Amino acid sequence: MKTTVVKKIIFSLALVLLISIGAVWYWRSYRPRLIQIEASREYQAIAEDYYAMTPANANFRQAAKRTETFLNRYTGALSPKEEAAAKIILASSLPSGDRIRMVETLKEVAQSREYPSNLRALAINLIVDDYEINFTDLLFARREIFSGGDFAKALNDAGGDEILAIRKLNEWSLALFPTAIPNYRIAKWYASQIYKNPQMTEGEKVKLLSKVGEYLLAGDRIPMSGSPPQREGLAYELKARTVALSGGTREEAERFFKLAMETYQRPPQTVFQILYLRRSSLFYAAFLARNYGMLRTGDIQTLLKPHYELLSTPQGLEQRPRLVAFLAAARDSANVIYPAPDFNKSDIKQLQKIYPEFGKVVEGLTPSKD
């Protein structure tokens, strides 16, 4: 009898011990793996929903809140790739009033060596995107972008020249993970030097043209198949502007502008394609005005009409502070640090003659501060 009782006790203790060991194993080994799988699935859903947003369902505030909640919930459970990609989505979703946080988040990704190189390079590219289109605060770049770490070094290496420092950011992006867009941006920088210095010697021009060709070719060698249409369209825009600024034929430049417009309209058209289309249409309109003037009035007005209609309403002015700031900066570009020699004060004046209603709207723009 006693032997039976002892056996039962021993069996019960062994069972409890086995269950305890199993529970410990589950919590230490299997449960973290389940959490990782759950986090990975949720990230995929966030990314798919974000990059597929259309004008009908776009809600950037909701996307930012969802992504921030996700990052907080799965702290320590995400792979470096998923964490970096989620932070890029968070930064890209933030409203214009959170521009400082957006740049800080992208800088964190760019400078964190544990993150994949391609995502670090993308973070740099998105910072450059913001620099080239956002003029809501003219001191922002020096104060926020080029502060701390590798970003401060870029400005220091450029001797305090912001536009040259942006070129160095593009070079850093290429060193991390070569893609087409920073190559085309560097090519455009060299083309801009040709455009802005018409008195340079023939030898100096040849050297710069060689650089333009070098970076255009490097960009062309990197396939963009699989890239989102807005990035592919931006690549065509940059090539068009590079050709125009470096003295290439207007036919070749316009061919690239048309490719950009066609790419942005590729179905299903996301909200990102529309945002980039609006950006490129301004440069395309200025190009047509410079090269054809009143002969292309119809095409120029077609490109500018969506901007005119948007900015003619109080709601449009409130919803598009970056567009307002960009146009105002171009209008006043003789008096500010301004990086676009192919869309400046003289272009605004020319467009005002071709499309007076649009010109009147631009004259009345007053940028709000971040």
Explain this structure.
With 370 residues, the chain is mainly alpha-helical. The chain has 18 helices and no strands. The protein is globular. It starts with a helix and ends in a 7-residue tail after the last helix.
List keywords for this structure.
mainly alpha; globular; 370 residues; 18 helices
Radius of gyration: 26 Å
Q: In what range is the share of β-strand residues?
A: under 5%
Secondary-structure content class: mainly alpha
Give the termini separation.
84 Å
* Low-pLDDT residue spans: 22-27
Biggest sheet record: none
Number of helices: 18
Share in helix: over 70%
Shape: globular
- How many individual β-strands? 0
Mean pLDDT across the residues is: 90
Order of helices and strands: HHHHHHHHHHHHHHHHHH
Short structural description:
The chain is mostly helical.
Topology record:
Blueprint (H helix, E strand, L loop, with lengths): L1 H50 L8 H14 L6 H14 L5 H13 L5 H17 L6 H6 L3 H9 L4 H15 L3 H17 L5 H19 L8 H17 L4 H15 L6 H22 L4 H15 L2 H6 L1 H11 L13 H10 L1 H8 L7
